[in-house]
Amino acid sequence: MFASSRDATPRDIALQLLSRREYSRAEIAQKLKQKAVATADIEACLDTLEEQGLQSDVRFAESFIRSRIMRGQGVIRIKGELRQRGISQEIVAETLATVEENEGVDWFELASDTLSRRFSSPGESPKERAKRERFLASRGFDFEQIRYALSCL
Known about the structure:
mainly alpha, cytoplasm, Arc Repressor Mutant, subunit A, RecX_HTH_3rd, 9 helices
């Protein structure tokens, strides 16, 4: 098993994290900083893990995007959350394009499906319609996708 937390090396801590799920490089660095690991040691550890293929921001982003699509979240929110987790714009753009192509993601249909799971009608009053629009906007869908989803109910 793993050494006690006092004896654990930065690599031990990082591997323990990665054994549960994918993490971005920035997330692991933050966790190691919380454990009072020196910045130079963190960088060396992360470089080694990346070279060995044990940590990959691309793999993290792919996993993250797929999980968020399954939750019914839109591209705007997904991009924002990936940026918060330290993923570069280039990786976000490339990975989104790859997942969209491989999975056949249709953001308009995803918005429609997400809305229909929560609401059974587009809303009778402007207030009810606005509630549905806010719901989809908070999920990260753009105006065109929201309009399409409302037209499908």
